[in-house]
Amino acid sequence: MIGQHVPVRLGERSYDIVVEPGLSRSLGALLKPLLDTGKVGIVTDRHVARHYLKPTIESLKQAGYEPVTIVLPPGERSKTLTTIARILDVLAKQRFERRSLLLALGGGVIGDLTGFAAAIYQRGIAYVQVPTTLVAQVDSSVGGKTGVDHRLGKNLIGAFHQPRAVFIDPFTLHTLPRREWIAGLAEVIKYGVIADEVFFSRLEASMSDLLKRNAHAVMQAVTRSCQIKAEVVAADERESDRRRILNYGHTIGHALEVLCNYRNLIHGEAVAIGMVAEADLSVHLGLCKQDVSARIRGLVQAAGLPDRMPNTSFAALWRAMQHDKKVVGGKVMGVWPIRLGEVVMRPLEAEACADWHVTLSGSNSARQKRRIRRA
Ligand SMILES: NC(=O)c1ccc[n+]([C@@H]2O[C@H](COP(=O)([O-])OP(=O)(O)OC[C@H]3O[C@@H](n4cnc5c(N)ncnc54)[C@H](O)[C@@H]3O)[C@@H](O)[C@H]2O)c1
Ligand SMILES: [Zn+2]
Fold first, then answer.
1. Is the terminal CB of the chain with fewer CB neighbours within 10 Å at N or C?
2. Which of 202, 216, 213, 207 is nearest to 300 (CA)?
3. What domains sit in the chain, N to C, each tagged with a CATH number?
4. What is the pLDDT of residue 91?
5. Residue range 323-352, pLDDT digits in tens
6. Least confidently predicted of 196-210, 261-275, 325-339
7. E-assigned strands of 216-357?
8. Of ligand 1's atoms, which has the minimum distance to the CA of residue 45?
9. What is the pLDDT of residue 154?
10. Cα–Cα distance, 60 to 354 (Å, whole number)
11. 261 Rama class: left (phi>0) / alpha (psi -120 to 50) / beta
12. Do 118 and 124 form a contact (C-beta atoms < 8 A)?
């Protein structure tokens, strides 16, 4: 399969997602329509730099740019205002101008940091995303949400700032650690559930190829995921309504991340458990049939992702769910599958969630539920 262009239609902020195996070797040429000459700040982390920084610098130099590199420590712990200050220091010292460009070469952490630095340096400069993890290729590089974490909450500080382009090279996924690869598959499965039954069925058929990172299967999965994300973002850039469907699996997923202190589960794993739990809850609420939730669980298991709720008390789970940004007036706004490819958004009451939690094997649930009834 050769390259694919997926448009993100956002009026004057529109841009293209280019998905093409091997593209990372011609980034210099790809930047030409966006910036003729000048400084390009390549922001990356140490892991990614080891594999992809040298060819990126060479490609940019060949096309006549002056690359300036900023190599950060890898991982979520770098996603802070302190790192932003470090990036801004380099930009100021190197005299980056309003017309200069930043290039985010890495996973979601690098993309979120680079986008946010680009949003605030000189009140906003251009940036492009070159995502190198599956999570970043199918999710975080598209849509313009940028930002950093705060001690009191993940992604608490940020800005909407759309990239000028997203350049995806699926070949870069070959060096990704297996656990990160599988975690990214959770977000791919999510797109099938929220928007496309045919895609979901295709994933069921191709999961073993995807696990082997077969080029054709990867290309299809990444491209279709980007198309769905682009459509959802174009319909609701600032997440006032439809964009919230992307949070399927994340209400419980985020709560589990908080409960395990972001240690035992990585994001995609928590989302996988969240998708299965929320599908199960949807059955419990009478919104969808059992076979739908069974297929979602089956695909999550086939991907090698975890699907079982850890043993938490209902009170702790509900408290963690309250901290989510999706809470409206004390009620948790949930995204519920009604069939494969279609979800609805409805608030979730504590009582209904407690009722469901009792059905899990956890021993504390019944006691917790009685306590909530009394309160
Ligand atoms: N902005 C959004 O809309 C959005 C959406 C989803 C997630 N996110 C954010 O994205 C972040 C998670 O992204 P992530 O999962 O990509 O994490 P990440 O950026 O931390 O990357 C995961 C690990 O993989 C390494 N890595 C990256 N590419 C590699 C490659 N090709 N080969 C080998 N190693 C590689 C990284 O160095 C890192 O150690 C979170 O901070 C999350 O909040 C943002
Ligand atoms: Zn996610």
1. C
2. 207
3. 4-175 (3.40.50.1970), 229-374 (1.20.1090.10)
4. 98
5. 766 666 667 899 999 999 999 999 999 999
6. 325-339
7. 327-328, 331-339, 342-348
8. 37
9. 87
10. 56
11. left
12. yes
Question: Which residues are near ligand 1 (CB < 6 Å)?
Answer: 45, 47-48, 51, 74-76, 79, 106-110, 112, 132-133, 135-136, 139-140, 143, 145, 155, 172, 175-176, 180, 267
Q: How confident is the model at residue 318 (pLDDT cuts 50, 70, 90)?
A: very high
Mutate to test the pocket of ligand 1, among 109, 130, 232, 257 (most ligand atoms within 8 A of CB): 109
pTM confidence score: 0.94
Confidence of residue 363 (pLDDT cuts 50, 70, 90): very low
Give which of 81, 80, 131, 77 is closest to 108, Cα–Cα.
131
Burial category of 18 from C-beta neighbours within 10 Å (exposed 0-12, middle 13-18, buried 19 and up) = middle
Compute the distance from residue 271 Cα to the ligand 2 centre, in Å.
7
Spatial separation of the C-alpha atoms in residues 34 and 38, rounded to whole Å: 11
Tell me the CA–centroid distance for residue 282 and ligand 2, in Å: 19
Instruction: Kindly give the distance from the C-alpha atom of residue 137 to the centroid of ligand 2, in angstroms, as a whole number.
Output: 12
Give me the amino acid identity at 295.
R
Q: Which ligand 1 atom minimizes the distance to the CA of 51?
A: 32
Ligand nearest to the backbone CA of 184: 1
